[in-house]
Specification:
- By secondary structure, this protein is an all-alpha fold.
- The chain has helices at residues 31-39, 44-66, 75-92, 100-119, 127-147, 155-162, 166-176, 207-222, 226-236, 242-249, 253-271, 288-298; strands spanning 2-4, 22-24.
- It has a two-stranded antiparallel sheet with strand order 1-2.
Length: 299
């Protein structure tokens, strides 16, 4: 419900010729309380008056918050943001500069808009791009209304109306789709052969680690004696047991085990610059010895 009140009734003065301000019924007459607050020193009594003013104007803050409902944020959270804006308005208000409502409404509204700008983006974009998005959105709407919605406004038309370059318009148009994100479970195609967005995303390839190990171990394996290279090949690529390798070479199994351990340790130390850490120490494991050996053997 709106009522007509004069500036004199609210205890404030206006310039001659200024039309009477329309105030809501949630705009109490607190001019006297604000005058007291401005004259008081810091202390418990001032805090009490300040808190009373915030309580008196809280219904107005809630009303402003209600204008932004159904935009992806709960009404309760919007009211909390509006209340924070109200507190700022009460603390910064100077009674001699005009009616409190004229100062508080844009302050609270600005606080809510900042909340949407800084907290509600699913994909965070720079503030400059957010400003471009707003300019592009307004210009597109104006051009669409002018043309009756018969055609999509061109980038050049938007740039001319908004005073932007075409590159800035393109950046703003990309940001239009960044306020909310598409679910990874969203269907990308209809019908029996439909697939989700997650199906189109790549994943880390474990083979890259093998490539790194091959290159790191390659030179060290090439410098091994021929017999030790042959033992590693039989053990790791022909999957022969140490006993079979020993029988094939006419040496003991213990000797084969020592040669494998010594060869892998040598290659490991050279690959890691002598640190001796990070690669498997078990000569029976399929670590850098077999993969690096394969690269050396094939070449």
């Amino acid at each position: 419900m709106l009522v007509n009140v004069s500036a004199q009734a609210s205890g404030t003065s206006v310039r001659p010729g200024t039309p009477a301000r329309r105030a809501h019924d949630d705009a109490p007459d607190t001019a006297t309380a604000f005058a007291r607050l401005a004259a008081m020193d810091t202390g418990p009594e001032r805090d009490r008056v300040r808190d009373e003013l915030v309580r008196d104007w809280l219904p107005m803050a809630h009303r402003i918050a209600g204008r932004f409902r159904n935009r992806g944020e709960s009404l309760e959270d919007l009211r909390q943001v509006a209340a924070m804006g109200l507190v700022k308005a009460v603390d910064r208000y100077e009674p001699e500069r005009g009616a409190f409502e004229s100062y508080a409404v844009p302050t609270i509204t600005g606080e809510i808009k900042r909340h949407f700008r800084d907290r509600m983006w699913t994909l965070r974009v720079p503030r400059r791009v957010q400003d471009l998005r707003n300019k592009v959105r307004v210009a597109r709407r104006e051009l669409s209304q002018t043309s009756g919605g018969s055609a999509e406004p061109s980038v050049a038309d938007i740039a001319a109306l908004a005073g932007l370059t075409e590159e800035e318009v393109n950046a703003g148009m990309e940001a239009l789709d960044s306020f909310s994100a598409l679910s990874l479970d969203a269907e990308m195609a209809s019908g029996d052969d439909g697939y989700s967005l997650a199906d189109t995303l790549g994943a880390p390839d474990a083979a890259y680690d093998v490539v790194v190990d091959r290159e790191a171990a390659k030179q060290g394996l090439r410098r091994l004696p021929e017999r030790e290279r042959a033992i590693l090949y039989m053990r790791f690529f022909e999957d022969m047991t140490q006993s079979r390798i020993a029988d094939h070479l006419g040496i003991s199994q213990m000797h084969v085990s020592r040669l494998i351990s010594r060869s892998c340790a040598r290659v490991r130390d050279e690959a890691l610059g002598g640190s001796g850490a990070g690669l498997p120490s078990d000569p029976g494991s399929h670590g850098p010895c077999p993969s690096g050996y394969a690269a050396s053997h094939e070449q």
